[in-house]
Amino acid sequence: CSRNRRCSCQENGTVGKRPSARAIIIKDNKIAMVYSKKYNYYQFPGGGIESNETKEDALIREVKEEVGLEVIKDSIKEYGLVIRKENGKIEDIFIQENYYYLCDVTNNILGQSLDNDEIEEEFVLEFVDAKKAIDVYAGKTADFTNVDLYDLNKTAAQLFKFEKNSDGTYT
Fold first, then answer.
1. What's the whole-model pTM score?
2. What phi and psi, each to the nearest 5 degrees, are found at residue 137?
């Protein structure tokens, strides 16, 4: 298996699991998001949990690497868990465990430390209105998973108290 994946064999084939920690950072009623300029999508900052680190330590490291923000450790609060199962590219079944945390950050914005895939996708930090991020997702093709759209819809509805209208817009 590849980096950050824990694999096992089961009677239906191989199963890869990748736990990740993702941040919900809100400043001035906007959410800090990773934006892919190449593919025009948003996702919550965060990433894989290394075998030698806690979820919180991974959250702090990943947010700093992806968007250059410093998470204030004492502000981290559990928000929820979303599990995504799909056919794997490396293994037969891939399970992504996304642990979400509300947290605050310092006012410092540091440089990013992106891996090759993130550089290729042209990841940048954007503080966006939740409705904008949802609208961008709503226009995506099936090439992208709906896990971040689901997470963003749920988060936005709970934190910003708005709902999806029958015509697909948000109020």
1. 0.75
2. -60, -40
